[in-house]
Amino acid sequence: MAPGDFLFELLKATVALFVIVDPIGPVPIFANLTKTLTPMEKKRVFRTAAIVGAVLLAAFALVGQELLLLFGITLPSFQIAGGFILFILAIDIIFRGERTDKQALSSIEETAVFPIAFPLLVGPGAITTTMISIQSSGIAIALIAIVIVMSLSWVVLRLTDRIYRILGKTGSAVIARIMALFIAAIAVEYVLLGIQHYYPPV
Prior knowledge:
By secondary structure, the chain is mostly helical. The protein has nine helices and no strands. It has helices at residues 3-21, 27-33, 39-70, 75-96, 102-105, 112-121, 124-137, 139-158, 160-198.
């Protein structure tokens, strides 16, 4: 792969994954989950969440192809199924607001792993996007994209209180819905690519 093509594929994979992970949308949830923690405890929680999120996505990137082979699933079929899942996720965010988990909000025990790392950062959408990325762009691009996105997510997590003060609840909700539109567009693209495999344009 030429350097220019590599960079383009990396940019495409990184943007797609960042839009799906969407660390800015759940900022109100992050702020609520960590409001009773000290600044040092927050740093430790957010660092752990970013590391756990990266490990989870890397694991799916490394074994994603084997999982597809194990269940006899082709990439186009996975793209179509993943596209539908992402579209449902986008619709849910648009009409219901930021992703939330009421049961998780009742306790801050193991906050770094659940619910911050999973499912707020690494949910079904991020897992689907990672598995499709490794199939379409390769393992190197998928892993680099994971590192970049989780690093950016860690920065956002560190700035949670500041971002929440600036955006407020309304601003965060608006951003979440705008990002959901991008998620919907990516979902449609996945479905169309999968369909073209079975019904190629004449």
